[in-house]
Amino acid sequence: LTALTWLDVASNQLGVLPDSLASLTALTHLNVSRNHLGALPDSLGELTALTQLKVWGNQLGVLPDWLGELTGLTQLNVSFNQLGVLPDSLGELTALTQLNVAGNQLGVLPDWLASLTALTHLNVSRNHLGALPDSLGELTALTQLDVSRNQLGVLPDWLGGLTALTWLDVSGNQLGVLPDWLGGLTALTWL
Q1: pTM score > 0.85 for this model?
Q2: Most buried in the list 8, 23, 124, 149, measured by CB within 10 Å?
């Protein structure tokens, strides 16, 4: 199976992944979503050809630091796990265009997210965010941003500078007012 490029074992009852997956060095797409994984084995760090990694809907409490070594990743979906923090090593994934961390237990977003300047899609919905860090204002390539179902009381002014946004979801928060700068996001087709 050394020529395998796509592996999808989603929607099973896997509790662990075998170390032998490390021999699939041509793998570019790995989907292990909707299983019962409590951890990702270190051997997956050998899969440096990966461009898409989907591990959503598992029971991950932490993400391993070696994820930051998969610098070819363009899509990472770790949503609907039990993550309380995102490791700093993810800041090395500068090729990422899509990052989904929805449905976890994140109370704050790390400033290193600003280094992911290729991001076009960012989903941080369904967490416990009371504020969005100013550093996210550096993500000017964003076209889709989902901050819904958090605990946001206000939308920060820097959001008005993300003029490439076509899709912005702020529903299910604690917003008291909508800011005037929303009118300046002329590319928006969905709000």
Answers
A1: yes
A2: 124
